[in-house]
Automatic annotation (TrEMBL):
<dbReference type="InterPro" id="IPR023614">
    <property type="entry name" value="Porin_dom_sf"/>
</dbReference>
<dbReference type="InterPro" id="IPR027246">
    <property type="entry name" value="Porin_Euk/Tom40"/>
</dbReference>
<keyword id="KW-1134">Transmembrane beta strand</keyword>
<keyword id="KW-0472">Membrane</keyword>
<dbReference type="Pfam" id="PF01459">
    <property type="entry name" value="Porin_3"/>
</dbReference>
<dbReference type="GO" id="GO:0030150">
    <property type="term" value="P:protein import into mitochondrial matrix"/>
</dbReference>
<dbReference type="InterPro" id="IPR037930">
    <property type="entry name" value="Tom40"/>
</dbReference>
<dbReference type="GO" id="GO:0005741">
    <property type="term" value="C:mitochondrial outer membrane"/>
</dbReference>
<keyword id="KW-0813">Transport</keyword>
<keyword id="KW-0812">Transmembrane</keyword>
<keyword id="KW-0496">Mitochondrion</keyword>
<keyword id="KW-0653">Protein transport</keyword>
<protein>
    <submittedName>
        <fullName>Mitochondrial import receptor subunit TOM40</fullName>
    </submittedName>
</protein>
<comment type="similarity">
    <text>Belongs to the Tom40 family.</text>
</comment>
<dbReference type="GO" id="GO:0008320">
    <property type="term" value="F:protein transmembrane transporter activity"/>
</dbReference>
<keyword id="KW-1000">Mitochondrion outer membrane</keyword>
Amino acid sequence: MGNASSTGGGSAPNQPQQSAAPMSASPAAGDSTTGGVTLVPKSPSSPGQVGAGTDDSQSSGAPILAAVPEDKYALNPGTNETLHNKVKDLFPTPFDGGKLVVNKPLSNHFQASHTVVMSSIDPSQSGYKYGLTFVGTKKYSESEVYPILLGEFSPAGGDLNGQIIHQPAEQWRVKLVSQLKQGKNLATQLTNEFRWPKANLAVTVANVDLEHRSGTVVADYMHTVFGRHAVGGMAIVGCNPRIPGGYNAVLGLGARLAGDKWQLNLSATPLHGSFHASYLRKLTNELQLVSDWEVDLSQRASLGNIGYQWEMPKSGFTFKARIDTEWVVAATMEKKLAPFPFTFALSGLAHQVKHQYRFGIGLVFQ
């Protein structure tokens, strides 16, 4: 937990059921141009963003690959899977109970993390977790170094989560994600992503079981059309003997409209009656407003959220808050305790209808 946060309250409307839906394994939320970077004493906020620093090849004077210009993929639209991530990342992710995170860099390539969670609301999340991150030396730019290996182990439950992200070529990125629970394979996903300056293609194969003839294949394509505006679509095909006919298919459409200080994201699965819209407005360099709306006509359900993020760089404060149409109010506050490498966090969530209230306190050592 780089931000001392976890999954918040308020449930989203049910999406159309798919067979063995793939897991999300995007290296940087909402931005396909970021991949891996070198390690410093900083909590990793996402698989491809560990911090900035220098690697061994630089410190020893050894030659490295020529850096790709930072703006070469500035108009790359990313994927439909990450279409709404930029908005979702600005909403608070409240947690309850106590949380302690210690991030310790072992070298320029290794970083270890220790997480202790104490929660009475969700005992399954309580306990100790050990994480390890490794980044390699194949450098494409100041913010992209590969390969990246991430792992997290929970001794109490025997759970193991792992990711491998590598970029064999400038336009080709491979991601492998696996989840093990008590020694059994829970889910596996392999993604091949191909990038161009104004287009992005990703093909994902998830949870393939040849013995039971089951699995999921996802094809995802986005293309920049005018300026920063982009359109695309995705097709999901799931195979399972328990599905009538042996398989099902879902077709999705996506679009992004963007300006200098705003962004509107739209996605839909028309045949299933599911729609999703999100909007971001940057009022100042410190204050951003966001809104999100999901509708599922087949389930007759909908959920809307509005929120904000307010950063105060001089004092080290970051505030996030949201309220949804189910009258769930959530907020988080983070304070960097400079000059010490600590971040203090407070969290609160109130469900007005169910009269449920949750509070959390966290501390991150970086």
